[in-house]
């Protein structure tokens, strides 16, 4: 399944995040975001050497996790359980996101890897609360 409708809410990230594929069971997916030089965050992070902030990478993962009616994460983001940043994301990079899901007693957990053409940019684990989950 492919989604061509970008997901965007109140966010500092103007890039569209597109889900490219999702497994039939919905427990794995891949997405892409083109990080253009016009991203508003580059003006302050940093004007002479722009780097896409880690929190914006997290935003892209969250958007990919909740994109479309087939997305497993229908609940609210409950926690950023971990985030490890391994490489910078620069203007003009394509951010590729690979997501995998599992259910836990505390909610639905999404493990994601974000990469650019240069390699790994981040490893992220998000937890989403679903109805009836303990928070």
UniProtKB/TrEMBL annotation:
Coiled-coil-forming residues are none
Taxonomic superkingdom? Bacteria
> Boundaries of each ApeI dehydratase-like domain copy?
30-108
Entries under SUPFAM superfamilies matching the protein: Thioesterase/thiol ester dehydrase-isomerase
- Record InterPro entries: ApeI-like, HotDog_dom_sf
- Name of this protein: ApeI dehydratase-like domain-containing protein
The source organism is: Streptomyces luteosporeus
């Amino acid at each position: 399944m492919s989604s061509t409708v970008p997901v965007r809410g109140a966010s500092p990230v103007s890039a569209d995040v597109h889900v490219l594929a999702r497994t039939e069971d919905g427990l794995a997916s891949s997405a892409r975001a083109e990080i253009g030089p016009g991203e508003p965050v580059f003006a302050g992070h940093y004007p002479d050497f722009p780097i896409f902030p880690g929190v914006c990478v997290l935003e892209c993962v969250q958007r990919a996790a909740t994109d479309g009616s087939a997305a497993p994460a229908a609940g609210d983001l409950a926690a950023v359980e971990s985030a490890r940043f391994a490489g910078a994301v620069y203007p003009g990079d394509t951010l590729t996101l690979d997501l995998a899901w599992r259910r836990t007693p505390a909610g639905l957990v999404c493990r994601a890897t974000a990469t650019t053409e240069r390699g790994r940019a981040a490893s992220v684990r998000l937890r989403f609360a679903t109805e009836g989950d303990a928070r």
